[in-house]
Amino acid sequence: MRAVFLARPHAIRRLVFLEGPARYLEEFVELSREAGINPEILPRSAFMRMGGFTEDEKHQGVMIVAEPPAVHSESDLGILTDASTVIALDQVSNPQNLGTIIRNAAFFGVDAVIWLKNRSVDLSPTVTTVAVGGVEFVTLFRITNLARTFETLKGHGFWVYGLDERGEKTLAETEFDRKSVLVIGAEGEGLRRRTKEFCDALVRIPGGRRGLQSLNAGVASAVALAELFRKEATRASARRVPPDE
C-alpha cells in the first residue's frame, strides 16, 4: 500500500482505517494528507465487508481504494526504447511465481515485465499481494505474441536471453548486452521450442541433479537478475575508474 502512495498517489480514491487505536498507522495519515485524501474510519463489520476480508486474513487495519495499475499492450512497446532490462514470461501460469517475479524485478530495477494474454496467469489480487508493492515500480505488459514482441524489442536494440537448463553457457559465463531481455519459461516445461528460436542465446543456472534439474520460475528470476545486475554494476564501476596516466 505504501508503494501506491509513492508511485501513484493520484490513483488513490479512499484510505480507510479500522476503528480503534492505530498509532503505527500515522505514516499513512501523513501520506494521505500529502495526497489530499481525507482518511475514513469504519467499525470492524463495515471494514471487513468493504475489504472482503475473512477473519483469518491479515489486513493490518488499513486499506486503500485505488485505480488498478496500467497494463500495456504490444502497441505500447515503444515506451521501452530507452529501457535497459526487461523480463518476458513464456506461459508462466502460477500466480505466486508471477507475483514473485514482479517483486524481484522491482527490487533489482528492471524496467518492464511482459507476459502472455493466453495460457498464462494474469494480474490478480493474489499476484499483487505476493508482489508486495512491486507492481507500482515496474512497467507491465500483457501481449498476445511473444515472437512478434521479441522482434519489436530487437528493433529497439535489445538482445534476448532465454533461461534454459540446457543453455550452452552459465549466467556467469554470459556477457549480457546493455539492453537485455531475460526470458523465463513455464513451471516444469520451461521455454517452448519456438520461443528458444527467437532467443539470441540460451543461458543456464549452474546446479541441479537427477530428478531436480531446475528451480521454479520465481526463484530462477531472482538468481538470474542478481547475476545480471552484478555484471552491470561491475561494468559501471569499471567505467568510473580513470585510465592510467
Please list the strands of the largest sheet in the order they lie side by side.
Answer: 4-7-6-5-10-8-11-9
Q: Looking at the structure, what is the overall shape? A: globular
Number of strands: 11
Number of helices: 8
List the uncertain runs: none
The ordered string of helix (H) and strand (E) elements is HEHEHEEEHEHEHEEEHEH
Radius of gyration: 21 Å
Mean pLDDT across every amino acid position: 89
Q: Strand content of the residues, in percent?
A: 15-25%
Please describe the biggest sheet, giving its number of strands, its sense, and whether it closes into a barrel.
8 strands, parallel
- Helical proportion? 25-40%
- Structural classification: alpha/beta
Distance between the termini: 52 Å
Features:
alpha/beta, 8-stranded parallel β-sheet, 3-stranded mixed β-sheet, 8 helices, 20% strand
Task: Explain what the structure shows.
The chain has 245 residues and is of the alpha/beta class. It contains eight helices and eleven strands. Helix 5 links the parallel strand 6 (112-116) and strand 7 (139-143).
Topology, please?
Elements: H1 2-7, E1 12-18, H2 26-34, E2 40-42, H3 44-51, E3 62-66, E4 71-72, E5 85-90, H4 95-108, E6 112-116, H5 125-131, E7 139-143, H6 146-155, E8 159-163, E9 169-170, E10 180-185, H7 193-197, E11 201-204, H8 217-240
Parallel strand pairs: 1-2, 4-7, 5-6, 5-10, 6-7, 8-10, 8-11, 9-11
Antiparallel strand pairs: 1-3
Summarize the structure.
With 245 residues, the protein is an alpha/beta fold. It is 34% helix and 20% strand.
